Structure formats: C-alpha cells, structure tokens
Amino acid sequence: MFKNKVLFIVDDDEDDISLFVEAVNEIDKSMGCFIGKNGEDALNRLDQLEMLPDVIFLDLNMPKMNGREFLARLKASERFKDIPVVIYSTSSAEQDKIETKELGAADYLVKPDSFTDLCVQLAKLIRTQGNK
Predict the structure, then answer these.
(1) pLDDT at residue 126 in the model
(2) In this prediction, what percent of the chain has a pLDDT beyond 70?
(3) 7 with 33: CB under 8 angstroms?
(4) Cα 91 to Cα 105: distance, rounded to the nearest angstrom
(5) DSSP 109
(6) Strand order in the sheet with 32-36
(7) Is 17 helix (H, G, I), strand (E, B) or coil?
(8) What is the pLDDT of residues 13-45, one digit of tens each?
(9) Nearest to 11 by CA among 68, 74, 93, 88
(10) Are 8 and 46 contacting, i.e. CB atoms less than 8 angstroms apart?
C-alpha cells in the first residue's frame, strides 16, 4: 500500500513515539520510521540521512527546540524545505493550527484517543502528503 515510504516522527514523549511506530507497522510494515526526540535532535538526524523522509510528523511542545522552531528552520533549509510536515500534537487550539500553517506545515493532526483512529488518520495523511 505505502511501499518503501519513509516517515520521521519528532516527539519527546516515548509513549507517543511507541504508539506512532506501532500504528505505522500496522498500516504497512514496509514503511520506515526515523525518530527525533526534539527539534535539535531531528535536525541533526536529518543532516545524516542520505534519503530524506516522505513526511515528517512533528510535535509542538518539546525541550531544546520546540516544533515551531524546528519547522521554521526546516522550511528555511534548501535541502529540507519541500518535505511535507504534519503537526502531530495534543493541542487542538486554532491559533496553533494557524501559526504552524503560516510556518509551512502541510497539515495538522490532533493526537487521537484510540489506536484505531490513529491508524486510520495516519494512513489518510500518508496517502495525501507522501504523494505530493
């Protein structure tokens, strides 16, 4: 279904990362998933990748470099600016959605309450964002 897609999750919450990776494996085991623990860590990891991810899923509230700072730096980079970024946050605040869209986010996903909802929403987003 999503053969050889590569995702990158940037989140400081271990439980959210585990659930995300589990959902990715449930959707399609052929997808790869890189992990960044915060914006600073994610930029360092991206610099080391030969093949860039198809989509980045980005939490907003993280230590060292938060999601907004990461997004601004990513979109200012010639190498990384075209990677679609989906905000993946517990915040459903309209202001967060507006601000991140202005910074260049492709989409916004409020972290769902159930694993099934996460799988359905991730599959939909990967299908639309990963094919642009």
Answers:
(1) 81
(2) 95
(3) yes
(4) 15
(5) E
(6) 32-36, 6-10, 55-58, 85-89, 107-110
(7) helix
(8) 999 999 999 999 998 888 889 999 999 999 999
(9) 88
(10) yes
55 alpha-carbon distance from chain centroid: 6
Residue type, 43: L
**pTM (two decimals):** 0.92
**pLDDT for 125 beyond 90:** no
Which stretch of DSSP H or E encloses residue 8?
A: strand 6-10
- Please count the other Cβ atoms lying within 10 Å of the Cβ belonging to residue 7: 25
Dig out the tokens for 117 from the structure. Answer: 């909802």
| Residue 2 near residue 126, CB atoms below 8 Å | yes
CATH annotation of 6-129: 3.40.50.2300
User: Which phi and psi angles does 41 have, rounded to 5°?
Assistant: -60, -40
Two tokens at 125? Answer: 């987003």
